[in-house]
Amino acid sequence: MLNEAKLIITDKKDPLEQIWQIGTDSLFGPKIIEVDALDRDFAEEVERRSHAGLRRCYFCRSCGNGCPFVTAMDVPPYAVMRMVHYGLREEALSTRTIWICVNCHTCASQCPMAIDIAAMMNTLCHMALEERVPVPTPDILKFHLEVVRSIERHGRTHKLGIMLRLKLLTGEWFKDVDVGLKMLSKRKLDLRPSRIRALKEIHRLFLPYWRVVKP
Amino acid sequence: MRDKDSLEFSYFPGCSVVTTSWESNQSLLHACRSLGLNLKELEDWNCCGSSSAFAIDPELGFNLSARNLSLAEPDRPLLVMCPRCLHHLRETHQILRQDKLMRRAQERRWKRPISPDLEIIHFLEAVVKLGPQTWKRDGLEGLKVMPYYGCTLFRPPALRRERYYQGEVENVLAALGAVPVVKALTNRCCGSFLSAVRPGLVTQMVNEIIQSAVTAGAECLVTVCAMCQLNLEIRCTLEQKLPIFHFSEILALALEAKDYESWFARHLVDPRPLLIERGLLR
Ligand code: SF4
Ligand code: SF4
Fold this sequence. Notes:
The structure holds 2 protein chains of 2 kinds.
Chain A: E1 6-10, E2 19-23, E3 31-34, H1 42-50, H2 62-66, H3 77-86, H4 89-93, H5 97-100, H6 106-110, H7 117-130, H8 138-154, H9 159-170, H10 177-185, H11 199-203
Chain B: E1 8-12, H1 15-18, H2 22-35, E2 38-41, H3 50-56, H4 58-71, E3 78-80, H5 83-98, H6 100-110, E4 120-122, H7 123-129, E5 144-148, H8 168-175, E6 179-180, H9 194-197, H10 199-215, E7 220-223, H11 226-234, E8 244-246, H12 247-254, H13 260-264, H14 272-277
Parallel strand pairs in B: 1-2, 1-3, 3-4, 5-6, 5-7, 7-8
The structure holds iron/sulfur cluster (2 copies).
């Protein structure tokens, strides 16, 4: 299902105008990349924020073999790695792959260079949000946002609340109702959230510090 | 091994364990009582940040984990039940241990000290420290169990210098008289949060895991992670479903717990018929 990532450098007359062609996936098709448009500091920036050790990657592609979710991704993990190396900022930040990644570290356990690929994925998700890159998996983003809002509200996650909100937000009430009912009948979903006492301490994390100072 | 101090723990249950997996908490408390491990719940603990905070705002995740560390008493090891929480707490602690300025900043933020020497351990590790090899019980009557570690206890890269758990569940199971079945997908990821947003994908994954257990001849699975336990139960669509035990349940059962009825009633795949058939339950 996944093609090998191919990199073809096609020479044009002017060597500064070299065009790289990258075919990461049959879904993607070949893609022409202009060298001039690359963000040469991207890899450095991702490394500084993630501490993934991504400079060590020599593109053996073991990580694509290991990832159990590769079929749900648009490009395998090593292709994201290459995009980061090449400075394909937009391309890397708009992949599904970074959002599908569940941080299971299977890839890292197979990586001969012990690179923390999941840490890189998390950093890319964060950067994609900061830079307002459209997220190709809005349902996954909604899920993360609901979990974080639940933490903001209660200091802990409230599963029933999250599930209800997700169905409300996506308008798909009955999608998972069977599992939801089974969980309810086994009392696996608490009606009332468990809440921490010092909620103020949590709320402060969600505000800039000067919002809460009083003169 | 059994000096008094090493048996006193602060206990971090985590969001899943106190709600969805209440039975895991109850059986843990029971097992700890029988083993002489004294747990004191971490006062007013909060969510570790979970995958979600670490994906959309790693700094928020880091701060949430750091608050928990600021609540822990320095001389009591912090016992954690959920592998994902363990990973986040340990990684955060590792950063705070290595970076004094960051630690001080967090201490000022929470107005509480954070000990660089705090020990953070998983329940499995606490059990292993007790030396289960010497127990020589045969309570589980040769029950064929597949130990399922899931992904997170399988040495995440940021913690590669820390302990390695591979094989420990088998040792405990064998000491309790069960037969570990390991030629199966013991470390395959359960799908984590994708279970909520991509149920079809996770069903496929979970079916593969459980089918591998069936093929290898296991009668049930035992997991160390409450989220894995839930995903394996709710997402399996195979005709032949296997019961999925929490590690703490199997342990408490072998240590002759009495209140198991209320735990097992909460399972979506009822383990009682199997246990009755094997003469482990009446
Ligand atoms: S396994 Fe490691 S070294 Fe190989 S391509 Fe993936 S990240 Fe690079
Ligand atoms: S950590 Fe992410 S990229 Fe790596 S194997 Fe797991 S899901 Fe795939």
